[in-house]
């Protein structure tokens, strides 16, 4: 197995949200929510001010800051619990030290040594030690449920100021998930805890922020005055539990400083109010696709998957539901033209087309000639663009005789149902990584899935295919770029020809930000981290880069 972009959803990593519903004017929600946040910290306008951040439309927060948990609050890893390395997915192979200062692999890729940073303390004053790092990973070995990314470790031990990881096979590709997606935890506080169920309500980390007040409607984090890199310039961050309508009001009035939100009319709703300061940056972070449940009928049939794909008008979805912010997906699911070299030559110019006649023919072949095909599409109700996309697809599928019911549910319910395979088909985002391998692994690796009824950590469509796993293993077994490229091209062929997932359109990292208080936000000119506040641990990197406007 290997490193990958786990969907934490956050996935992150199970990603809980990057978008919001914009309906009628909100009235009161936001102002009432913020009223309980406390006053601004000292400083003049735009200097050392708290930030108000929108992450998702939960309506309420659960006090869960367990960095091992699938349902942890976004920011748990990064704000409180820091990883060993930071990987900038917007710049391939851009890896910077975090709690580790350096690392080295053995020639066979089965041993990894990492030097742990000195003079770092937990927020309770205790020093970070190599034993804390060993404890963090040993817990994953002892309790497999904590190993969300499926990183296969043989062992972990301390050797002076180094931690030594051993693996049963060549594991160069494990670095990202192992060192970039796991937050280091304090042994002296968590030893003896049942970490697969512990909610960790009062997190003690090494990170740049500490937990301030918490309620179901809003929680705050405060700058750590003893942070090893120095106290962050942002003194406080407030995370209200927004209702969908409140977000629209907050963006229009300037009360929200940073949002992970889909806005139907960016210029009208957001930018025109203050074009000098209201900015956005939407780089691609992966793929939005129909995740079909291949563990049961009807999506265990290739003909059905092909028929559904041929019936969908992706151009219409992108133009109408996504307002042109994204592009229709390439049949491989890979972002184009950035990943063109990873696509087999014969498929580089491939594109999705609508073919209702062919779709009907395939349905008849699958046994749905006289019998109507019916299934349910599960979508998170607050994701307006997903809901609108679903309605458009319902219309498209009706043209070929498919009766698709759209069922909208709350975000938490959606996450739970998809994770346990309690769905026919869902519209879902898959997060990319340093190379296309990670996107494919999180969608297709059989090691990440579970039988229906059990919580999967990836591959929510329950795809199980020997050839797919062999290609993933071939990539993992080598550090040779040409061989890795060949393996990814094989995986692209699987997606194009077998449709284990049905690609629809790109998945942007939604980021709306205001420059009235701080400068230094990620941008096309300075893409130092994924810009969405819904992305961990990148959120912490962004907050550490910000400088007050004088």
TrEMBL record:
An example Gene Ontology CC term for this record: outer membrane-bounded periplasmic space
Q: Does the keyword Transmembrane helix apply?
A: no
Annotated Solute-binding protein family domain residues? 95-436
User: What does the record give under GO molecular function?
Assistant: peptide transmembrane transporter activity
Q: Which UniProt keywords apply?
A: Signal
Q: Does the keyword Cell wall biogenesis/degradation apply?
A: no
Cited InterPro entries: Peptide/Ni-bd (IPR030678), SBP_5 (IPR039424), SBP_5_dom (IPR000914), TAT_signal (IPR006311)
Query: Per the UniProt entry, what are the Gene Ontology biological process annotations, in alphabetical order?
Result: microcin transport; peptide transport
Q: What is this protein called?
A: Peptide ABC transporter substrate-binding protein
